[in-house]
Every structure is written in structure tokens, then in C-alpha cells.
What we know:
Blueprint: E1 7-10, H1 20-36, E2 39-44, H2 55-66, E3 73-77, H3 82-94, E4 98-104, E5 107-111, E6 121-124, E7 131-136, E8 140-145, E9 152-155, H4 163-173, E10 178-182, H5 189-198, E11 205-209, E12 212-213, H6 229-234, H7 239-247, H8 262-268, E13 279-280, H9 283-295, H10 299-312, H11 323-328, H12 330-334, H13 344-351, H14 359-367, H15 372-383, H16 390-404, H17 409-417, H18 426-432, H19 434-451
Parallel strand pairs: 1-2, 2-3, 10-11, 12-13
Antiparallel strand pairs: 4-5, 4-6, 6-9, 7-8
Helix pairs in contact: 1-8, 4-5, 7-9, 14-17, 15-16, 15-19, 16-18, 17-19
Amino acid sequence: MTNPDIRCRFAPSPTGYLHVGSARTALFNWLFARSVGGTFVLRIEDTDGDRNRPELIDVIFDELRWLGIDWDEGPFFQSDSRDRHRQVVTDLLANGRAYLSERVNEENVVIEGSELVDGLAVRYRVPKDRQVVFTDAVRGDVSFETNDLEDFVIWRSNGTPTFLLANAVDDADMGITHAIRGEDLLSTTPKVQLLMEEIGATPPIYGHLPLLVNEQRKKLSKRRDDVSIADYRTRGYLPEAMVNYLALLGWGPDDDIEIRPIIEIIDKFDLGRVNKAAAFFDLKKLDHFSATYIQNLDADKFVELVLPYLHADERWSAETIDVAVVKEFAGDVQQRVATLSEAPDWYDWLFLDSVEIEEKAMNKGLRKAKQADEVLDGVIEAFADCAWEEDVLNQTVRAVGDTLGVKSAVPVRVAVTGKMGGIPLYGPLVRLGRDKTIDRLRTAREHLRSSS
Length: 452
């Protein structure tokens, strides 16, 4: 279905970093607009001056671009419409649909007057004995009794509009046809619709997305959970993986395929397939998505993306990194990481002058390994004059083990890499070189003997 008249918007507040919930909201609005050939508008809701952090505005833009979410119109700033907001409030005061108010001893006191007064808030006078009914694109028919709604603030005492007033006016003025947002805002919808009715506007079609919850099935919290898109980006999750995963938080295609390119997600996206039930933000599943996308990178692209993480590692200088080595073993590392930030720990032993053997590896791979001392002796001797080639090194280590009647690969790996596991050993040993390899074997042997 193509409908160029559809207009969606994402309207973040610059009061904090873009988090996964807001990113999902932006994505669903963007996906819907793109799926029908409509327009996606970016609007910054910056009317709350006390909480605004202007330095975060560009950060939000950058994170959206990183996710591949572009906008057709904007960014617009709500604060630029202050005069328009003020006029609407003035009109509501003049026709008795709103009134001046102040807080006295925790009570709202009505102040006589039909014009704005500095230092006084303005409340909308909710009509009584009415129902506000709308059809939610996700939840179906929804209704609220106005008798259950209290009069609410539309203009703060500091001279700024509230979210409810600014949201209603701006959606009307921008011709927004669909507003896809979080379930936590559902209770504000009747208030916004009443205000839009007051200004003679047609409310958009709302779609309230299910909450995102953690492992305890509690709503994701900025204080308790990892929710910042910037943090996931820093840790090296690929944006394609993040978008693919976010798209499935509350929505599902008409097949069982989960990992798919964005063009297919756009093609299949349908608001009618958004679930009402809370969506579990499963970090393990996100890791799976990210790992899959990393595995599918070609070597050159992987190297390009991983080099900043290698260069930033404080265990070595950036000049130490041999790009040819990074590329040569890219495929092996790609099969073992879920994020780019994990890659240095798989490459580290190739770029360090020496390694410190992890205690667990020392205990299991050397102290408890059968005849580990003799294995290291035999490999040191054999490595001294064998051809320094991958197959030869592999065969040499095997031969030492066969002679002793034990498994020999693990003690060698632990001695050279400092770890129990890692990428295939013998190709990288060729790159590490004979001298460094033998030095590490000797160091591990001495360590083993001194700790026995």
C-alpha cells in the first residue's frame, strides 16, 4: 500500500541520551512512513527549559543517523512555536476553556482572569460527562471517561507550554496523520485529543507500542538497565543488527525469518502486526543478531570497523597493530565475537610483547595437564629448528604429544596466548615468529616449575 499523504513524526526531548525505547519508537514511525511512501518528520520537544540539555540534540541526531533513520522534514524545534502555543492558550483562557491556577498548600487554586499572568499556570477545563473514543492502530478501540480526568496544566508558571499543549498544537500544525509512541503515553491521549478538538484539528491515528521489559519483566529503566544507544554503539554492536533487533520488539513479520536486511523489513512492516504484550529486551538475542551480522562482514569491512577498537586499546600503542595480521585472521575472530569491542581480546597475544597467563588457564591448562612440563620441553626443542610453517608447527606439536602419550596442544596454547581458548593457533604462530613463541614457551615452563 502506498499513501504519500501519511505523515509520521518522532519527537524526542533533549533531556537525556537516546535510549532503546525511544529508538524503537523512532524506528517504527520511520518504518511505517517508508513502507507506505509517506513522510517522516523529526521534531525536538525542547519546551522544558529546566530539564533540557542542548548539547544532547546533536547526539540524538547522530545516533539516529547511525541507526540509518533519516528524516524528510526537520528537525523542527518546539520552542520555535512558542508564540503559536501562547496564542492557543490565550484563546482558551478567553473563551473559558482554561483558567489561571496556582499551587497553595498542595492545592490548585483558581485565579480569576482571562489573560495570561506571569508566574501563574494555566489549566485546561476538562468537559464533564463525555467519552473520548479513538481507534488505536495497535490496541483497537479505546475509550476514556472525562469524569475520570482532572483539569490539567497546559501552560507552566514559568511561561512555557506543557508537553500536552505543545504536542497537540504541533501535531495539528504539521499535519501529522499517525503518531506511533510508547504505551506509557496512552493515558495522555484523551487529553491531547480534547485539546486538538478545541483548536478544530483532526487528531492523528495513534498506535501505542508495548512496553520494553527486562529479564524480571519490569519496564526498562535508565537507572537500572543498559538502555543507551550510545553505549551499545561504543561497545561495538553493528547498527544493522540493532535496527533488525529493535524492529522485532513488539512487531513480527508473517514468516519465521528474523535476520533480514532493512529493505525487507520495510517491505513487510505492518502496524497491524504490532503486539499488545510487553516486549522482552533480550540482550542475549541482541548479541546473537550482532554476532551474525559481524560474521557476514567481508574481511575488509571488518578490519575497517575493528581497527578503532584495536588502536584505542591501552595495552599497546596504535603503531603496534599490523593491519595485515588483523585481516589475515579476521574470519577466525569474526566467528567468535558478538561485538567489535570483544575483538582485541582475541587478537591481543599477537600484538603484546609478552602475555600474562590467566590463572584459570594456568591451573587447568598447565598445572593439571598431564606432563605439561615435558610437553613444553619437547615443543621448545622441536620448534628451535623446524620449518616455521602452519602445517609443520601443527604436526610438530602433535608429534610431541604422541611421543609422550598426552594431549599437547592446550599447554602450548596457554603458554603462548595466556588463555585456554582462542582462534586456531598455528597460522597466528607463523605471524608471531619463532623467537617470541619460544620465549613464551620458556617463560611458561619456568612459571610452571616455580609454582609446582
